[in-house]
């Protein structure tokens, strides 16, 4: 297969529905020599923040000169975004080569889309032999296709409600699934809070005799008067202290994600991966995670990114993939604390299996105009369904435009100098909008 054929074949596997379980992965990886066993990994689960934490960890390690593999999902516009080593994405030819190999080994057998991409990631990383691989779970943890590794460190960012159809309809049930990545003797770094899954995480750590290192107990972050922050670890981290830190990404919660990454770095020292304070600062200041509270300003004529001027010749955007109540709460906090704008024009699209009522109840009161649209995908909610879930007082401020490109055009028509266009509700929408506005992420 060439690259286009390989991607088309992968897309065809989406009709083979989500199937949680490890039997297929164990069976297939054994047939290709278990390449995952040769990798040094950090395994990352959590409801929100796992992608940001993973990107932060990779960025800092790369600043220190290490080659770090990163496997994340979903992608925004190109499947190649899921596979990278430092700033280099898998090539089209290598993707096609490995996809063809997987298909040949499978024969008439079928695996899911995510199992296929995970297998491809393991094969590629095994060939490239990076110093470390950061693996983000796709869904849950216990039965996620990535959960066949024996990591050096496990990370569980947090637990909140999402994917209830697969993970359960209580925090306890979701936490149990996330805790499934905990392995015997492997240290666990987490920001899970009391009353939000901590009981299940603690129980799993005790069962597996895995050391649990908690944000707020064993390490933490504190803001300083100069607007920067510092990280402090307890005796488990040799009482390490890093001052004068700055996060490049918007969102106060990014300090928590960055703190988790620093805790992991401290643990990785025993594996020989040492990082200087200078590299930590440089890494934190340069992390870029597209589509996650990503702010930029476009010149209306040239369509090039410019520094914000606040005049009618430019238009300001904030793109964020927040799609569950916890994620939208973080987005709302950023809008209130970190964003300065006159009017907020919201372009919103979501998947039909999300909590539409709760998410819209959080974000709708802040918007002066809401444009409901529909990204391509069988799970995308119809704009009429979104409108039906808007709080009563906001309905008169809503507009329906199913086509994403026309929705963006409408938003720009409405936006004046000093206004902000927020595109949010789904990473599928972010992928479509970002490609229209900034072009492809992977060239």
Can you tell me about this structure?
This protein has 15 helices and 18 strands. The mean pLDDT is 93. Helix 1 packs across helix 4 and helix 3 packs across helix 10. It has two domains: 284 residues, UDP-N-acetylmuramoyl-L-alanine:D-glutamate ligase, CATH 3.40.1190; 145 residues, Mur ligase, C-terminal domain (Protein-Tyrosine Phosphatase, Chain A, Alpha-Beta Complex), CATH 3.90.190.20. It is α/β, with parallel strands linked by helices and 443 residues long. Helix 8 links the parallel strand 7 and strand 8. The strands form three sheets. The chain has an eight-stranded mixed sheet, with helices on both faces. A seven-stranded mixed sheet has the order 13-12-14-18-15-16-17. A three-stranded antiparallel sheet has the order 9-10-11, with helices on one face.
The CATH C-level name of the largest domain is Alpha Beta
The CATH architecture of the largest domain comes to 3-Layer(aba) Sandwich
**What overall form do the CA principal axes indicate?**
globular
From the helix content, strand content and strand pairing, which structural class follows?
alpha/beta
Can you give the helix content as a percent range? 25-40%
Individual helix count: 15
User: Going by CATH, what is the homologous superfamily of the largest domain?
Assistant: Mur-like, catalytic domain
Mean pLDDT: 93
Fill in the CATH topology of the largest domain. Answer: UDP-N-acetylmuramoyl-L-alanine:D-glutamate ligase
Distance between the termini: 20 Å
Strand order of the largest sheet: 4-3-2-5-1-6-7-8
Radius of gyration, whole Å: 22 Å
**Which sheet architecture does the biggest sheet show?**
8 strands, mixed
Strand content is 15-25%
What's the count of strands?
A: 18
**Uncertain runs with pLDDT below 50, 5 residues or more?**
none
Number of domains: 2
């Amino acid at each position: 297969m060439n690259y286009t054929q390989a991607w088309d074949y992968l897309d065809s596997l989406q009709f083979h529905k989500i199937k949680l379980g490890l039997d297929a992965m164990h069976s297939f990886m054994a047939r290709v020599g278990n390449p995952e066993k040769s990798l040094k990994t950090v395994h990352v689960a959590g409801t929100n923040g796992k992608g940001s934490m993973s990107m932060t960890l990779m960025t800092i390690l790369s600043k220190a000169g290490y080659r770090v593999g990163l496997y994340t999902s979903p992608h925004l516009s190109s499947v190649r975004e899921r596979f990278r080593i430092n700033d280099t994405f898998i090539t089209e030819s290598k993707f096609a080569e490995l996809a063809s190999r997987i298909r040949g080994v499978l024969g008439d057998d079928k695996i899911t889309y995510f199992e296929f991409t995970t297998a491809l990631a393991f094969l590629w990383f095994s060939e490239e032999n990076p110093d470390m691989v950061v693996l983000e779970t796709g869904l849950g943890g216990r039965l996620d296709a990535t959960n066949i590794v024996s990591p050096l460190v496990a990370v569980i960012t947090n637990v909140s409600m999402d994917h209830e159809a697969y993970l359960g309809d209580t925090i306890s049930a979701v936490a149990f699934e996330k805790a499934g990545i905990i392995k015997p003797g492997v240290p666990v770094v987490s920001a899970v809070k009391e009353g939000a899954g901590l009981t299940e995480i603690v129980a799993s750590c005790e069962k597996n005799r895995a050391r649990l290192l908690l944000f707020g107990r064993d390490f933490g972050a504190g803001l300083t008067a100069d607007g920067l922050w510092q990280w402090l670890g307890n005796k488990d981290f040799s009482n390490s202290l890093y001052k004068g830190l700055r996060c490049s990404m918007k969102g106060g919660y990014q300090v928590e994600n960055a703190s988790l990454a620093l805790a992991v770095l401290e643990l990785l020292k025993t594996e020989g991966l040492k990082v200087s304070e200078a590299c930590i600062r440089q890494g934190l200041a340069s992390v870029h995670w597209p589509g996650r509270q990503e702010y930029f300003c476009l010149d209306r004529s040239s369509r090039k990114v410019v520094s914000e001027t606040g005049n009618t010749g430019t238009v300001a955007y904030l793109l964020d993939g927040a799609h569950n109540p916890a994620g939208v709460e973080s987005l709302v906090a950023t809008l209130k604390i970190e964003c300065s704008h006159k009017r907020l024009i919201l372009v919103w699209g979501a998947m039909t299996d999300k909590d539409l009522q709760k998410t819209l109840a959080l974000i709708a009161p802040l918007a002066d105009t809401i444009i409901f649209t529909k990204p391509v995908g069988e799970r995308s909610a119809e704009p009429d369904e979104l409108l039906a879930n808007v709080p009563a007082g906001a309905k008169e401020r809503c507009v329906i435009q199913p086509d994403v490109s026309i929705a963006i055009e409408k938003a720009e028509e409405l936006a004046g100098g000093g206004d902000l266009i927020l595109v949010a509700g789904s990473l599928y929408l972010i992928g479509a909008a970002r490609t229209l506005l900034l072009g492809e992420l992977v060239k």
